[in-house]
From TrEMBL:
The keyword Kinase does not apply. Belongs to the RNA methyltransferase RlmH family. SUPFAM superfamilies: alpha/beta knot (SSF75217). Keywords: Methyltransferase, S-adenosyl-L-methionine, Transferase. GO terms for biological process: methylation; rRNA processing. GO terms for molecular function: methyltransferase activity. The keyword Transcription does not apply. It comes from the Eukaryota. This is Putative RNA methyltransferase-like protein. Gene3D superfamilies: 3.40.1280.10.
Amino acid sequence: GASRLSFCIGGPYGHGQKLRARADKSIKLSS
């Protein structure tokens, strides 16, 4: 089957709850 990978890069406060609810996985990076 087909796979799909999307990166959504957020601002300093991240993404809204609506977008996070659609995600299967989430990775948080910080500096």
